[in-house]
Amino acid sequence: MLEYLLFSVLNSLVLGMLLFMLSSGLTLIFSMMGVLNFAHASFYMLGAYFGYQITQAVGFWPALVIAPLLVGVIGALVERYGLRTVHKYGHVAELLFTVGLAFIIEEGVNLIWGRNAMTYPVPQSLDFPLFTLFSTEFSTYRMFMLLISVAIFIGLYMVLTRTRIGLIIQAALTHPQGVSALGHNVPMVFMMVFGGGSALAGVAGVIGGIFLITEPAMAATLGPIVFVVIVVGGMGSLTGAFVASLLLAAIQTFAVGLEYSLTDLFALVGIHGQVSGLLEDLGRIQLSHTGPILPYLFMVLMLMFRPKGLMGKRES
């Protein structure tokens, strides 16, 4: 039992920090620009494929730098020549644009790399167990993911709250005319924010492509859960995204390992009863089978009782 608890905590931290790496870029874009980018998970997929391709040529460590930069440049170009054009037509036009962009990126990946999963191994310098507890090993690569994610959170928080550029970015959202009057190029600020958010998705792709799997469906797999994270954490709240990522990852991870049905849980608290039909069938469902839907259920409850999320401050 102790082994299960310890490694469930560690695994939920790894998954949670991966979700944060992916959701941090989307949170940054929304909080600074008010754009809900439905193609964000597609930039994550591009980061994974670029990382795979560059790793084949020059190795993992250069890929960890080059691939996010490439994704960031693509994101900046998308904002400059796409979103900026449709921005005058309102949020619906922006939403439709990003949805269409997600399909274009997915089909482009299928066209270039095919529909099969890529063989993207852990780099040799990180491919060894960091420690062993109760005969179970915890890999160095997982700890590397944790450290990178924590560094991203601290770095983003410090830049946005403690630096001049962070103050300019936040002021450009609420008072663009005032910031422009002070001599700052507000459109350039927005382009750099969108590019930076896309680059963060690229970092998550390079790292997550190894941890999970690099394939054309990876954007569709993680995309929905990322939106759950930012809704639960609070639209536009970086700290909220951090907390929600860890919380939802823990819910999924712990649920997967619990072979208890609803009937068993009721029996533990002293509730016994004979039921039949649909209720009996529902009572037999084990928690391990409900793991994938629990984050969405949690999001529904959050929207019902706290629509702004855990730490949200602005209306979506």
Short description:
This protein is an all-alpha fold and 316 residues long. The protein contains 14 helices and 2 strands, in the order H-H-H-H-E-E-H-H-H-H-H-H-H-H-H-H. The protein has helices spanning 2-33, 40-58, 60-86, 91-113, 140-162, 164-174, 176-181, 186-211, 218-233, 238-256, 262-268, 278-283, 287-290, 294-305; strands at residues 129-133, 136-139.
CATH architectural arrangement: Orthogonal Bundle
User: What gross morphology would you assign?
Assistant: globular
**Mean pLDDT over the full residue set:** 84
Distance between the termini: 42 Å
Structural commentary:
- By secondary structure, the chain is mainly alpha-helical.
- The protein has one domain: ABC transporter involved in vitamin B12 uptake, BtuC, CATH 1.10.3470.
- The protein has 14 helices and two strands; from the N terminus they run ααααββαααααααααα.
- It has helices at 2-33, 40-58, 60-86, 91-113, 140-162, 164-174, 176-181, 186-211, 218-233, 238-256, 262-268, 278-283, 287-290, 294-305, and strands spanning 129-133, 136-139.
- α1 runs antiparallel to α10, α3 packs across α8 and α9 packs across α10 (238-256).
- The longest helix has 32 residues, at 2-33.
- It starts with a helix and ends in an 11-residue tail after the last helix.
